[in-house]
Write a structure and sequence with these properties.
Blueprint (H helix, E strand, L loop, with lengths): L5 E7 L12 E6 L5 H9 L17 E6 L3 E5 L10 H17 L3 E9 L6 H12 L4 E6 L6 H15 L9 E3 L8 H11 L1
Parallel strand pairs: 2-4, 2-5, 5-6, 6-7
Antiparallel strand pairs: 1-3, 3-4
Bound molecules: guanosine-5'-triphosphate and magnesium ion.
The site of magnesium ion (MG) has 5 residues, from helix 1.
Length: about 200
């Protein structure tokens, strides 16, 4: 699939504020700073479309981007961001959970994990919860440019092993880099297929 049009439409602080046209959407979630917004910019080919930052906690709202006038890409706030107050953190959590579990337009959730880390409890728990609650999701490894090919492969295998402790079958997995563009074609092809 080619993306030839990508427009920011709106930011919502809760599910009820999200667009209501019933257009299908693809959402991106993962720990703060994992590279959600950067990946959206890579996919759309528009640098700066989704705001990125070296400091975790940049995206704080549900952001809808209309792609090719036909579907939405949705940038979500990260989970596990420690440096916001308790009240704000539970607000984020509710916003994200309401969206993930109740947004009928969401056809797939991409769960991003940093390829450099060993499977982290917060990510594994989140992935397991998605599986248990029947959310349609896929796993996207980010920042592949930061590891050698062989180290990336090891990391991928460690993750698969961890998830196979709980699951017989794994969701689709993708390896990406917003720096090098690795994985862009595969992800776009997959999005086209699921839409
Ligand atoms: P929040 O909105 O805070 O939840 O973060 P996010 O997941 O949207 O992360 P964001 O895209 O803002 O990226 C966080 C930092 O990681 C930025 O400094 C990016 O430049 C960097 N980054 C993101 N993706 C990659 C990648 O593939 N490779 C490298 N080397 N850096 C990346
Ligand atoms: Mg972001």
């Amino acid at each position: 699939m080619e993306i030839n049009k990508a427009q920011f439409i709106t930011s919502s602080s809760k599910l009820s504020e999200c667009p209501k046209e019933g257009i299908p959407e693809i959402a991106f979630i993962g720990r703060s700073n994992v590279g959600k917004s950067s990946l959206i910019n890579l996919l759309t080919g528009v640098k700066g479309l989704a705001k990125t930052s070296q400091t975790p906690g940049k995206t704080q709202l549900i952001n809808h981007f209309l792609i090719n006038d036909s579907f939405y890409i949705v940038d979500l706030p990260g989970y596990g961001y420690a440096r916001v107050g308790k009240g704000q953190r539970s607000g984020f959590k509710k916003m994200i959970e309401d969206y993930i579990h109740q947004r009928e337009e969401m056809v797939n959730l991409f769960v991003l994990v940093d390829i450099r880390h060993k499977p982290m409890k917060i990510d594994v728990d989140f992935i397991n919860e998605m599986g248990e609650t029947g959310v349609p999701f896929s796993i996207v490894f980010t920042k592949a440019d930061k590891l050698s090919k062989s180290a990336a492969k090891m990391s991928l295998m460690a993750y698969q092993e961890e998830l196979l402790k709980s699951w017989e079958e794994l969701p689709p997995l993708f390896v990406t880099s917003s720096e090098s563009g690795e994985g862009r074609e595969q992800l776009l092809e997959y999005i086209e297929q699921i839409l």
